[in-house]
Design goal:
The complex is a heterodimer of chains A (about 180) and B (about 400). With about 180 residues, chain A is of the alpha/beta class. Helices cover about 40% and strands about 15% of the residues of chain A. In chain A, helix 2 crosses helix 5. Chain A has one domain: Rossmann fold (3-Layer(aba) Sandwich), CATH 3.40.50. Chain A contains 7 helices and 7 strands. Chain A is globular and about 50 Å long. With about 400 residues, chain B is an alpha+beta fold. Chain B has 2 domains: about 290 residues, Orthogonal Bundle (Cytochrome-c3 Hydrogenase, chain B); about 30 residues, no CATH class. Chain B has 15 helices and 8 strands. In chain B, the strands form 3 sheets. In chain B, strands 1-2-3 form a 3-stranded antiparallel β-sheet. Chain B has a 3-stranded antiparallel β-sheet with strand order 6-7-8. A two-stranded antiparallel ribbon of chain B has the order 4-5. The chains are: A alpha/beta (about 180), B alpha+beta (about 400).
Amino acid sequence: MSGMSGSLSGNLVRWARIKSPWITIFNSGACNACDIEIIACLMPRFDVERFGILAKGSPRHADILIVTGRVTRKQASRLRRVWEQIPEPKYVIAVGACGAGGGVFEGLYHVLDGPECVIPVDIYLAGCPPRPDEIINAVVACLGLMEQDAAHGGKEWRQKQPAGKAGHASTGEGAV
Amino acid sequence: MAHVVIPVGPQHPALKEPVNFRVVADGEKIVRLEIDLSYNHRGIEKAAESRDFIRVLPLLERVCGICSHSHATCFAKGIEELMQLEIPQRAQYIRTIVAELERMHSHLLWLGVAAHEIGFNTLFMWTWRDRETVQDILEEISGNRVNYNMNEIGGVRCDISPEQAGSILKRLPLLEERIGEYVKMAKSQRTMLMRFCGVGKLSRAEILRYGAVGPTARASGVDYDARRDDPYLIYNTIPWNVVTDEDGDVFGRTKVRIGELRESLGMVRYCLENLPGGPIRVQAPKTAPSGGEILSRYEAPRGELVHFIRTNGTDKVERLDIRTPTLANWTSVAAALVDQNLADIPVIVAAIDPCLSCTSRLVVADRKSGKTGNISWNELRNGVCRIRPGSNRI
């Protein structure tokens, strides 16, 4: 991505990506509540398609991966594989109290940890489940992060910040 | 022609939740279906043994986010029966109102998903728009859209004020009109008739053999509903009917669910109009009696939900076993898919309204030999669970 920034085609791709991010949803051990609230975002009342956000089934078409739930032992390797298939630059939103830091499934025998144990997470969204408007807010915050990353030429600038999770301390947008 | 094995899932465009199908096909015809459901297994039954009755209800609600009230009510009413608690009428009415609203939101959700599977996205949008009305009502009553947390042992947490009841009653006619629209649509919409009729047919005998429950069973003429046949809450005192159908195919299941939408709406209206006064909860003892065992049955939106509870005199359960309706229905899906077209897989699978988060149980049973066995972490992770004879531990 950094090689392309500045060129006309690079700017065009960047503009298109931020104007129309495609998401893919992955249930890594959630209770379904977050999933139906995400689908409710696509429905007439919230209608995220007016922002160009489209839910895609294939990770190869996606820019943003939305992970719901804590990661079960069986889903961990699958989550990693799905994440690897998303083309760069890719962003991950952990939706729900489970992914954001605990939830009711913390410490169960078939539950590993939050998604950050397998893949890097950019945005954490708490709530059990978060309301659709909060989910839209998280996606919009993710778009802000995308824009900043594009300006800095990559995600590395966030990792140089002293403490906190990605995006937390520096932008204030990481945690929604 | 040789058989071809088509793997579907756990991540697949047509799937909403992680499940793995291995469809064995001969050309366009399905020969056999193998299912691996265990991706979302978390270990809730085990965790329930280590949490007291106050903390276990929020955990049980999250067995499934769609029928959260079902699980909590099913558990609470079982424990209350063991404690021999008399639950106030008003609490029972409120539980019933939330349960029927939940059924409405779940059936509207299902109708949308089924329409989506046949490419009828207009209906998908319509039903989910109407579902928002139900969600608003639920949010008004409980404070949350999905996991309501209404129950506690001994009653409910939130009361319904007369103003709330009035405002809910005012919104019901709109829903009623919309449901009437869906009834009309199911009769005349060509897209639905063509994709639903004669697809995934199951006879009454097959349903009984495979032990299917809920709307799937009622669509094949099995006149069984736990609300009527093993009454709980106030279902034996309010007017309503069990909806059945004789078609036995996906279309029959659609008609049953639309009919149940109407019945649920009637029940919500009746309960709100006849809401008795009095307290909404009683003080429950901290512990349940020792050696108590109960099989608590509940008609969840997807069918009969069963909680087996054993108590040991402490404030925790000794054993909790959850049999969710979707688990009971999977065998019937495998049977219904045989000799059907490959393109009909999504709609036949969707017809039982599968909920995989609740279904991911760890069941090890060998009825013939009666043996149990060890499962290593590795086997659990890879989905190859074999029973090793000779050992006595699961």
